[in-house]
Records
---
Amino acid sequence: MSNYHIKHLEEYYQVYRKSVRAPENFWEEVAEEHFLWYKKWDNVLSWDFTKPDVKWFEGAKLNITVNCIDRHLTTNADKTAILFEPNDPNEEAESITYKQLHERVCKFANVLKHQGISKGDRVCIYLPMIPELAVAVLACARIGAVHSVVFAGFSSTALATRINDSACKMVITSDGSYRGAKTIDLKGIVDEALEDCSCVDRVLVVKRIHSKIQMKEGRDVWLQPLLDKADTDCKPEIMDAEDPLFILYTSGSTGMPKGMVHTTAGYMVYTAYTFKNVFQYKPEDIYWCTADIGWITGHSYIVYGPLANGATTVMFEGVPSYPDYGRFWQIVEKHKVNQFYTAPTAIRALAKEGLEPVEKYDLSSLKVLGSVGEPINEEAWHWYNDNIGKKQSPIVDTWWQTETGGIMITPIPFATPTKPTYATLPFPGIQPTLMDEEGNELKNNQVSGRLCIKFPWPSMARTIWGNHQRYKDTYFSTYENKYFTGDGAFRDEVGYYRITGRVDDVIIVSGHNLGTAPIEDAINEHPAVAESAIVGFPHDIKGNALYGYVILKDVGETRRHDNLRKEINQIITEHVGPIAKLDKIQFTKGLPKTRSGKIMRRILRKIACKDTSNLGDTSTLLNPEVVKDIMDNAF
Ligand code: PRX
């Protein structure tokens, strides 16, 4: 029995037990069986959560692009690796074979080298969902440069913060991007960001929308002429198992985004192994994940995991609503997609449009459906199951995080019986546990608690770039010897997990992780604002929407409230990005605070959620009178 391909529940339990009893043996077997190494490891695992310090496959030498590309060339050179579906359905799809991908990655890697990038340098990639994005990521990995992909919906300020934090030497961008009927001036955003980034001396520009843009002499270069001249072969850099592969930023509850650092060998092994099992990928299948490569889902399950398995992975540039709400289903029919992986927010938005756009298309190719990024509510789960999967395709509700690198809690399709809203069981090698607020482990079933992981897994982030202390404080200090996820969860009578949501000040809006602090900081930049607090409230499509409580400096200022609301959202768009705009803004005279000056968000959350029958203990409030005032004026 290969533990690489789980097909029955009994097999899952067997594999799982083995993975927990002897984790080192388990992962060693997986690593030996399925990957190419220049040199094998001296030690499978060393770890100490108190530092925290985790190393997998220490001493091993490899290059991840050899595993994702070169090794498929002997048997699968002409198989499609990346199937690119453009924003506009009238533009032709592009099929890139493994052989072509090899050539494109090598050329791009040679360009990077010629432009002065070498092993360990950080390269920021700010591109739309076009093939160059995947190629740029792999080109960095080819030469050992550390990529930092920034989602191309982030504002110039957010981009600058991320570029500076990891001192990127180069930015790879495009003239612009298509997004449904709109175009976005990406290069303009980069130009603005770079006014504040002295570390960047080169910008490579991909031509996508053929718009007129400014090219700064000595800094900006068009990519294509460089590629035309580049050599088609590039020797892979030999990397240590624990060399950083990439940095990816995620929001924190406070201040700066956290640059999560993922390393090479463990990340490769885990993303490849999970991809194969969670999607039950077969060699002839067409797999499509609708995420953007700007997020971890795209890194792990559009690029690295699928390619390490020699899969055909679809990359879609557009949005689900353009030219109409049938676009996803049209693509499924056109490419005969077998595995389809998306987010609950997309499912809810599509469900709202009724069945007509679905029924127009033949979805019979689908075998497995995936969900990721936020809890999937029961209604959305059933809609997905009934109308997309026709009750034939199991839904894998996959729980994981930027920090975990790969899928952690998930059903194995055709093996684990699914249950709406439950991510179900831990993936082999993952040891979840629930804790109460006092730090006691909750050993029984049918309990709710805070979700922690007790034992290391290969793809866990190793640190926060430039701030190991913050890594320790955020994830390893709340509970002794455990990784704290920041999520709450319920474990049912058979041990299935249901993720109930964040227990910190991170709010998930349309599947995007947003920290309250950077949004509040942006609002407070407005000259009329004295203080603000953001909370989430339920939203039919976005899952959560943002509700802002804002204190104005001039409390009598009522004339301009509507204008102020627009200006506040404009500032948020500039500082964080349009995804962080507030749905509701309530101007208030005060915010409920504890005697130590901490805002009591619990109360604000209840008011925003219209759940004010029991506000809980308010006895520690310094200013209880503001609560009634806020309630009286709430939306
Ligand atoms: O709260 C959990 C939620 O998304 C958070 C991680 O967000 P991010 O780092 O952006 O990664 C998203 C893609 C992996 C988690 O802490 N989350 C993710 N997947 C699920 C989920 N909540 C419930 N169910 C899920 N399947």
---
Amino acid sequence: MKKGKLIILVAPSGAGKSTIAHKLFKDFEQLKFSVSATTRKPRTGEVNGTHYHFLTPAEFEERIAEKDFLEWEEFYGGTRYGTLRSEVDKNLKSGYFVLLDVEVKGAVNIKELYGNECLGIFIKPPSMEVLKQRLIARGTENNESLALRLERAKEELTYSDRFDRVIINDDLEAAYAQVKRAVEEFMNSN
Ligand code: ADP
Ligand code: 5GP
């Protein structure tokens, strides 16, 4: 497998990964997003091929059989998410840094595969209550999916020490300044 320069933002759903990733793409033009595959339905505004490759369960199964995934996980009542090798490799080959937005177990697996070629940043919410409020305010969850995400978040938070940096997303600008500095240091050290 081709080694490369990966950056993983990892956090419980709702902790602010997407918000922070968005800011990174504005600041670092040498950064490309690895578009994951998923079997979940698109949210309003999400574009196939940009936010995710939205696959049917059968299509996802086929891609597993073809060994197209670097890693994949199943959660939230059977929904699958996976990192496509082709997404990572095409960007590394073109000399880009690749940003991955994956959940905790996938991130642990990728960190194991890539070691020091991968910067793992764990984004922590200030508290479970704040996480819940942010998920509610985002307006994307029903009662069931909210409860599932919060339950999962408790477990995910126990993995934070597996990553290179842990940054608490309380004040967004302060958290982002720390993320930006860590990314700059990593890019300059490669
Ligand atoms: P994730 O990608 O980790 O699931 P999002 O980036 O979608 O999380 O953030 C969840 C919600 O919280 C969004 O509505 C976002 O605007 C909001 N949010 C993110 N960071 C902060 C912050 N520091 N303070 C307040 N709200 C935030
Ligand atoms: P969402 O449904 O909110 O877009 O994402 C739910 C969770 O799936 C997030 O924690 C996100 O990081 C994770 N996720 C997205 N893509 C992948 C992937 O390719 N692999 C893994 N393991 N998790 C992913």
